[in-house]
Amino acid sequence: MLRRALLAVLGFQLLLAVSLTLVDSYRRRGKKPKPFPVTPPIEVQVGAGTVTTYTFGQDLYDDMLAAIEGAQRQILFETYIWKGDAVGEAFKQALADAAARGVAVHVIYDGFANLVVPPSFKRFPPGIKVLRYPVYNAGWRFFDLRRYGRDHRKILVVDDEVGFVGGYNIGSPYATEWRDTHVRVTGPAVFDLKRTFADFWNLNRRKRLPRPRRRHERPLLLETASQWEPQIRVHRNVPRLWMFPIRSMYLEAINRATGNVWLTHAYFIPDQDFVDALKDAALRGVDVRLLLPRKSNHIVADWISRGYFGQMLDAGIRVFRYRDAMVHAKTATIDGSWSTVGTANVDRLSMQGNYEINVEFIDPAMARAMEKIYEADLANCAELTTGEWESRDLYRRFTEMVLAPLRPLL
Asked: pLDDT per residue over 191-210, tens digit each?
């Protein structure tokens, strides 16, 4: 009887989740996106290089395509979603043209995320070396949890000179309809992005991509040279190696905070320890703010994340919900000196499941740029008040309660 009861509860949870998704999809059909405030690209000097922050997809795509078109030696391109639309075709053609003129082009994309993309789009010229990360990668190792993570990263490195990383996938909707954050880096930090790409390639290909080394080491075939950049650190979640430093990066920064913690996340489904760190910061007087989409593209994630609102509001954490557009950014800025931009959401899939990459910046100029962007986003937000939260109806409370057990899965 107990087993049947548990199966019935699980079945009801799944039925409710599917129903919410279908209803939300129907409601969105035919709706035109609304404009939202954006900031132009902001460039700051960080250490021996520069960092340019993008909040509008078209600005980012223009610079990424320009970098690809100007490539002379090598292009490393990795993405989670790569739509076969006009923007996707523009990137595919630019990469093909680069390969045709003799540039070494390596491409990685996630097979599961692109199941709905036409097979014809996923056929590339022979000059492009492609790694399609498999939909199922465990083989006969059914119980090896290290092999179930998705490749959720978005990276572009061109000629050891410039690198791009952040939340933007490749596709026309992201160019103008989504609010996301990406950065362009130059200088020594480009080395770490290149090494990140090479390490993933080598985990999944027998024909290995030579791993780049720094100037003081013996050089390999790839002509990469770089010194350590103490103000920029690249953190990688690598489930195959059971390595998940991004969560620790966040917790360390939050626990150090004395002035402000401003977070922007598309999907916020943290574990209780993460919530407790934010609550502790707020209770010691830190200005803790969380900016989320009012309605994301994953309605079930929205419902599940709301389960934390009550305790956060009680602790003094301010929750802002972005209106009329999907905010997909994964960023934070703390105390006017620390910032991060990357691909990892604050949920189990990103923190303990997928391949992710976040760049940590310890620099006041970068923090000021991130604060400026945050303040611009707040102009398009509505703050959730305690009174509003406590007055929600019985239907909403019931849905939150039923879906709460799904938190550890997402």
From this structure: 999 999 999 999 988 767 77
Amino acid at site 164: F
Instruction: List the Cα angle 153/115/112 in 5-degree steps.
Output: 40
Instruction: Report whether 257 contacts 286 (CB < 8 A).
Output: yes
Q: Choose from 59-63, 189-193, 308-312 the range with maximum mean pLDDT.
A: 59-63
Q: Choose which CATH entry (3.90.1150.10, 3.30.870.10, 3.30.70.360, 3.30.420.270) describes domain 42-230.
A: 3.30.870.10
What's the whole-number average pLDDT of the chain? 88
**pLDDT classification of 137: cutoffs 50, 70, 90:** confident
What is the C-alpha R_g of the chain? 21
Element (H, E) at 409: none
Whether 31 shows a pLDDT value over 70: the answer reads no
Q: What burial class does residue 320 get, using C-beta atoms within 10 Å of its C-beta: 0-12 exposed, 13-18 middle, 19+ buried?
A: buried
C-beta separation of 308 from 278 below 8 A: no
**pLDDT recorded at residue 140:** 79
CA torsion, ordered 206, 351, 180, 104, to nearest 10 deg: -10
245-409 CATH, one of 3.40.190.10, 3.20.20.220, 3.30.70.260, 3.30.870.10:
3.30.870.10
The SS3 call for residue 53 is strand
Task: Encode 155-194: b = buried (16+ Cβ within 10 Å), e = exposed.
Answer: bbbbbbebbbbbbbbbbbbbbebbbbbbbbbbbbbbbbbb
* Domains 42-230 and 245-409 in one fold: yes
Domain map (residue ranges) of the chain: 42-230, 245-409
Q: What's the pTM value of the predicted model, to 2 decimals?
A: 0.90
Q: Report helix angle 2-28 to 394-403, nearest 10.
A: 120
